[in-house]
Amino acid sequence: MARRQIPVIVLAGFLGSGKTTLLNHLLSTSGGTRIGAVVNDFGSIEIDAMSVAGQVDSMVSLGNGCLCCAVDSSELDGFLDRLARPAARIDVIVVEASGLAEPQEIIRMILASENKNIVYGGLVEVVDAAEFDRTRARHPELDRHIGIADLVVLNKADRVQDAARASLEDRLTELAPGTPVVPASYGRVDPELLFDCKPREDHVEAIRQLSFEDLCHEEDGDGHADHLHAAYQSVEFVSDEPMHPRRLMDFLDARPAGLYRIKGFVHFGVGGHRDKFSLHAVGDFLRFYRSPWARSEPRATQLVMIGNGIDAQALSEGLDACRWGHLPAEAGEGPQDADSMWGVLRYAQS
Length: 350
Ligand SMILES: Nc1nc2c(ncn2[C@@H]2O[C@H](COP(=O)(O)OP(=O)(O)OP(=O)(O)O)[C@@H](O)[C@H]2O)c(=O)[nH]1
Description:
The strands form 2 sheets. A 7-stranded parallel β-sheet has the order 3-2-4-1-5-6-7, with helices on both faces. It has a 6-stranded mixed β-sheet with strand order 8-12-9-10-11-13, covered by helices on one side. Residues 42-47 and 200-231 have low confidence and may be disordered. It is α/β, with parallel strands linked by helices and 350 residues long. The chain has 2 domains: 6-216, P-loop containing nucleotide triphosphate hydrolases (Rossmann fold, 3-Layer(aba) Sandwich), CATH 3.40.50; 231-349, CobW-like, C-terminal domain (Hypothetical Protein Yjia, Chain: A,domain 2, 2-Layer Sandwich), CATH 3.30.1220.10. It starts with 5 loop residues before the first strand and ends with a strand. The protein is 28% helix and 23% strand. The site of guanosine-5'-triphosphate has 17 residues, from helix 1. GO terms for molecular function: hydrolase activity; nucleotide binding. Keywords: Chaperone, Hydrolase, Nucleotide-binding. Residues 232-323 form the CobW C-terminal domain. InterPro entries: CobW-likC_sf, CobW-like_C, CobW/HypB/UreG_nucleotide-bd, P-loop_NTPase, Zinc-reg_GTPase_activator.
């Protein structure tokens, strides 16, 4: 079976917004998921690298300067190659950009990489709630960075009043329409919003995904508790019937902004496209990864949706309406219609 490509997530945000704090949080709460981190410090002393040292499975630091100013991408390529080699058994790579980096340049380098083991996994932009206005006045490019993000983390929520936070959320939503804005303190976002977490191998009792409840318990202990994630909901969908690709794409295109994360796999059963299509959506970011089904694997669709303020029933009904068996008979439409897959294939990677 083809090896799954390793998503490379870019973690950006202005100086001091809380990127390293968030990365450390991901490292300590992602269960058995092996995270490879590329830390890109601005300056010659690798503070960030030191701050995450000891917590990371594999870490390479680009050191001394801004990644986006690199003359070519060969340096980053080399680091990604090291982390993506199968022996490293890394599940996800996080590139922490320096606070002064241009995220789109880093994204361009990742997209240009010829390494077949990796795939771009989206941009997470960390915003400092307390400094937003001052930073924006000095660095208008911040608006552009927020505009291209797949997920905006409104960090340091503990430093502003509720009303100010709500107003910031509205303004961020205006800058990035349709992109989820997740308030957080000390970078405490659910890692599942960014990537799939594996259970921790060294805990016999932890043969399950890290749940929101687990996170609540972990956070209660250290005084920086952020209970915002208590509002998260997760909705599951399972179907043995194949899914109609056009209907599913319409459903995905219209997904509500509060639906931060969708993961799972889809069975379309369309002629020529009977593979397993793993689906990975983080905010605006959407990808299908195509791979053969294992011989013993039942051909079925299984999706988990995680969000805040989402209408679980409407989502379930929306997906139900995408099953082939639930469609009204329409002329010319059937699982033999390979053209119906075009919308999906635009987002697909094998
Ligand atoms: N009050 C508060 N402080 C925070 C929060 N998140 C991070 N900090 C603090 O803010 C400071 C900067 O955090 P870092 O995680 O180093 O920020 P960074 O974005 O990696 O910084 P650069 O590497 O300079 O770009 C540290 O002192 C953190 O402890 C938060 O949510 N609330």
